[in-house]
Design a protein that fits this description.
The chain has about 110 residues and is an all-alpha fold. It has four helices and no strands. Helix 2 runs antiparallel to helix 3 and helix 3 crosses helix 4. The chain is elongated and about 65 Å long. The relative contact order is 0.17.
């Protein structure tokens, strides 16, 4: 995996959890708006909107660089629109990054030992 691909996956991973948190907070704000006089939906909606757009842009970049099959790309996109889905996406991306790092070290070791 080259550095640009790793960076695109890292960016996607970094925005996954905040996007999930903002989505959950937006849901809470929506409930509070309807049950109390507290209305933070416009603010949380804007924050979540920016984070979701960033997630989609980083997802497109990661899909382009990693050449994911359509099923994998769809899974990462669906995780962005599900409550708690961003947390699962972050965990999957972290695991994939660790696996890529291990594979890279193994390849480097084979080159050194050869």
């Amino acid at each position: 995996m080259d550095i640009k691909t790793a960076a695109s996956l890292h960016r996607l991973r970094l925005v996954s959890a905040p996007e999930a948190v903002s989505f959950l907070l937006l849901l809470v704000c929506s409930v509070l708006k309807r049950t109390t006089d507290f209305n933070a939906v416009p603010v949380m909606g804007a924050i979540h909107g920016v984070l979701f757009i960033l997630y989609v842009l980083f997802w497109l970049d990661a899909w382009n660089r990693t050449k994911w099959d359509p099923k994998t790309a769809a899974i990462y996109f669906v995780l962005s629109v599900l409550p708690f889905g961003g947390f699962f996406a972050e965990r999957k991306l972290k695991r994939a990054a660790e696996d890529a790092l291990i594979a890279s070290r193994a390849r480097r070791k084979d080159v050194v030992d050869a």
